[in-house]
Amino acid sequence: MEEKLNGTKLLENAVIFLSGTIDTNNAERICKEVISLNIEQKHPFIQLIINSAGGYCSAGFAIIDIMEWSKLPIYTTGIGMVASMGLMIFIAGEKGKRILTPRTSILSHRYSGGHSGNHSQIVATRVEEDFMHKRIVTHYTQHSALKTEQELNKHLLRDVDTWMTPEKAVEFGLADIVEVDRKNPVPKSKKR
């Protein structure tokens, strides 16, 4: 009888799957799994597979902080959609081991949020929004080929959503490899 692949089996093999909205529940689960794998030290690295349209910045940065804390390197693989905070988590993976599948949709955009309250509350919230924007800019400059806020504003943090191919993500230094389609490999050019 074929064994069913479930979350427990994945974790036993140091594979963590991040799918759906990045929220406090997903962040807590992923952080606990990374900590647990670090305590066990049974594997040389952790594989984080991401298929997410993004979510809450605070939850995403909690995951990123644990990734940076991890003694085990964390390899990231993007499938399906890697967008917004999902992209921020993806690029925090071990350099040289950030892989995208060939049909992955990738999205970067400016931070957005909403708030309400009296004037004083709105002003206070704006301080945190400015801090968040600075965290995002710093994260991109640390984990991509774009090293200035001006470059980021031109290419990734434009006034409109920035959709890109996996190849373009590699060009920007957001990813390292586009996984080859093993069933239909790209033919090698013939020498002349």
List the helices and strands and how they pair.
Elements: H1 7-12, E1 15-19, H2 24-40, E2 46-52, H3 57-69, E3 74-83, H4 85-91, E4 98-100, E5 105-108, H5 119-143, H6 149-155, E6 162-164, H7 166-171, E7 177-178
Parallel strand pairs: 1-2, 2-3, 3-4, 3-5, 4-7
Antiparallel strand pairs: 5-6
* Unreliable residue stretches: none
CATH superfamily of the domain at 7-109 and 159-178: 2-enoyl-CoA Hydratase, Chain A, domain 1
Query: C-alpha Rg, in Å?
Result: 18 Å
Q: Which CATH architecture of the domain at 7-109 and 159-178 would you pick?
A: Alpha-Beta Complex
Order of helices and strands: HEHEHEHEEHHEHE
Average residue-wise pLDDT? 90
CATH topology of the domain at 7-109 and 159-178: 2-enoyl-CoA Hydratase, Chain A, domain 1
Number of strands: 7
Structural class: alpha/beta
Number of helices: 7
Between the first and last Cα atoms, what is the distance in angstroms? 53 Å
Looking at the chains present, what oligomeric state does this protein adopt?
A: single chain
Helix content: 40-55%
How is the biggest beta sheet arranged?
Answer: 7 strands, mixed
User: Beta-strand level of the residues, as a percent range?
Assistant: 15-25%
Overall shape: globular
**CATH class designation of the domain at 7-109 and 159-178:** Alpha Beta
